[in-house]
Specification:
Helix content is about 45%, strand content about 25%. The chain is of the alpha+beta class. It holds the Pfam family Robl_LC7.
Amino acid sequence: MDWMLEELATSVPHVRHVVVLSSDGLPIARAGEESEARTNDMIADRLAAVGAGLKSLANSVAADYFPPEGRSIRMVAMEATGGFYYLMEAGEHAYLAVLADAEVDNQLMGNQMRSLVNRVGAHLTTPPRAAGQVT
């Protein structure tokens, strides 16, 4: 599935990494800056874990402050010194996360993320794990 993310990683200037993650924080696919495969795997693992945490926090905010029909988290954007982290719902139990430099065009990023999810969202869905299931 990595090839589906490569277009996003290369079509928006200043994108560093793109990861699809399951709702429990496991990376499903990745694309982005070329470096040693082990380093890319570690980055994908960390970005997926961060995404799961942000999703959980965002769900808590939505549950407390938005009406029940508005509680689905569509996108979370975080700006820090030096860059941005975006998290978007990509399918059932799946999320798209992007790490980008500060120079990224936020509007272009949002549009490209939505476009990717609209085109391939059905392929990004992950079934929930059953209790005791080994992956």
